[in-house]
Amino acid sequence: MRTVLMTGFDPFGGESVNPSWEVVKQLEGMHIDGCRVVTRQLPCVFGEALTVLNAAIDELDPTLVIAVGQAGGRVDVTVERVGINVDDARIPDNIGQQPVDVAIVADGPAAWFSTLPIKAMVAALRDAGVPASVSQTAGTFVCNHVMYGLLHKLADKPGAKGGFIHIPYLPEQAAAHPGAPSMAAQTVKQALEIAIAVGLRQTTDIKATGGATH
């Protein structure tokens, strides 16, 4: 049976939970379009996150890999377009590392584009009533580190697709950040199930506007 690998992160930046793992772990063992979903928690640590991710890819040989991360302040589910080859940490990771202007892969390309059908995913999410958009940046913290590293790893596995999705705070987190948007865990779970199904079914992306003016 084919496998889908979904990952989330442990809490960081003073939060007691990370919505990515709180939701992703609920998908463990699900079957979607004939594929079994396997989940892994990644540490919010430069380097170590990719060690854990790469080991899971080697173990499972997944057809589809979607890494999920928290983007506090974003209003919707954002499907990332591109990961760039730089770590530039505004805050320390969970073991105190704070790299500045450091390449993720010393001899790697400047960027890797997601191999997910990102616009088809966004369209399907919106059709289901889930706020969603294409994002043009995954930041320069551990989320981007994982996205770039994931796509670099999958470049040697042409049969596999992969990418990254950012999600907002959970309501209980937003309560501690007055004015911050949030999304219920059940809505995020629905969104990720839809994203998996579209990722498995859609061989080419749709032509639709997903750009930004700034």
UniProtKB/TrEMBL annotation:
A Pfam family of this chain: Peptidase_C15
GO molecular function, one term: pyroglutamyl-peptidase activity
Cited Gene3D superfamilies: Peptidase C15, pyroglutamyl peptidase I-like
Protein name: Pyrrolidone-carboxylate peptidase
Function: Removes 5-oxoproline from various penultimate amino acid residues except L-proline.
Keyword set, alphabetical order: Cytoplasm, Hydrolase, Protease, Thiol protease
NCBIfam families documented for this protein: PRK13197.1, pyro_pdase
Listed HAMAP family: Pyrrolid_peptidase
Domain of life assignment: Bacteria
EC number: 3.4.19.3
Subunit-structure text: Homotetramer.
Cited SUPFAM superfamilies: Pyrrolidone carboxyl peptidase (pyroglutamate aminopeptidase)
Taxonomic source organism: Silvania confinis
Family: Belongs to the peptidase C15 family.
Gene Ontology CC: cytosol
